[in-house]
Amino acid sequence: MLPEDVATAPEGFAEISPLSPFISFVGPIFVRCGDDLFEATFRVEPRHRNVFGHAHGGMMMTFADIMLGNAAKRALGDRPAVTLNLSTIFIRPLKVGDWVKGRATARPAGPGLAYACGQIESPDGLALTVEGMFKAVEARDLPRGTSPPEAAVVHPDFKVAHVNPFTDDVGPFYRRFENDDMLIGLRIEPRHANRHGLAHGGVLMTFADALIGRTARRKAVYGSVTLRMVGNFIAAPRVGDWVEGRCRITRIDGPLIYLTGTATSRDRLLLAANAVFSMVEERKFPRVA
């Protein structure tokens, strides 16, 4: 970005604090808190784009996870919280230059649990709806440090996959083919971490969107866009871990493609996701350089 293009806080908002490495990397993100409402906003920049020139689904789910996670933390008495589930419905695309605004509320949902929901709007109207479950944790109970060197070993057939500005920036993502299946890989780096030193939920949702989206696009003549994405978080990788994803198509119904995918590391299941993508026509979503 050029210095004059750096986003500054809208009136009444302040940059989110404390910052994690990944929030610092994708931000700035600005927030303000009411009695029962948590609000967040950011400006879509060229580095946030997908192949069609709109805000990438991974960036939008990162923003949603940050917004809902902070609302849930407040509902849990300001205790640290981790994401258990995140469900997002995409309604309209977001353009470069748009100021994206989100609002979230949360309430306790059992011992140590909080349910949060919200919506995200662009200047053109409602863009996403999102909900999730979050769990309070004690920081001392979370794994610390980086993974051993062998955890970052990459299969020799993996090659860097350049796809779009956002995933190229967050990655590099890697891919390889096994029979007719395409596998996606990512090494967790320090910039991918949350405040606890584990991979941020937004990184895993970006990984899921890249994995499932690439699989969907192999069945689409021109391309596809995310309509719905649900991620269930089982474990979090540490810095140094090599994460690998597999995906399969479960059904095709006209322009709709239904898919399920998983992310694993060191034989541990990290994330199980399912999604609905829609095939698109070139005249409706022209690609950008």
- In CATH terms, what is the fold-level topology? Thiol Ester Dehydrase, Chain A
> Which homologous superfamily in CATH is the superfamily?
Hotdog Thioesterase
Number of helices: 4
Biggest sheet overview? 14 strands, antiparallel
As a percent range, the share of helical residues equals 10-25%
Helices and strands: which structural class? Answer: alpha+beta
Q: Could you give the order of strands across the largest sheet?
A: 1-2-3-5-6-7-4-11-14-13-12-10-9-8
Radius of gyration: 18 Å
Query: Which word captures the global form?
Result: globular
Helix and strand layout, with pairings?
Blueprint: E1 14-15, H1 21-26, E2 30-33, E3 38-43, H2 57-75, E4 81-90, E5 99-108, E6 113-122, E7 125-136, E8 159-160, H3 165-170, E9 174-178, E10 181-187, H4 201-217, E11 223-233, E12 242-253, E13 256-265, E14 268-280
Antiparallel strand pairs: 1-2, 2-3, 3-5, 4-7, 4-11, 5-6, 6-7, 8-9, 9-10, 10-12, 11-14, 12-13, 13-14
Walk me through what this model shows:
The chain has one domain (3-280): Hotdog Thioesterase (Thiol Ester Dehydrase, Chain A, Roll). It contains 4 helices and 14 strands. The protein has helices spanning 21-26, 57-75, 165-170, 201-217, and strands spanning 14-15, 30-33, 38-43, 81-90, 99-108, 113-122, 125-136, 159-160, 174-178, 181-187, 223-233, 242-253, 256-265, 268-280. β12 and β13 (256-265) form a beta hairpin.
Summed up, what is this model?
The chain has 4 helices and 14 strands. The protein is α+β, with helices and mostly antiparallel strands and 289 residues long. It has a 14-stranded antiparallel sheet with strand order 1-2-3-5-6-7-4-11-14-13-12-10-9-8, with helices on one face.
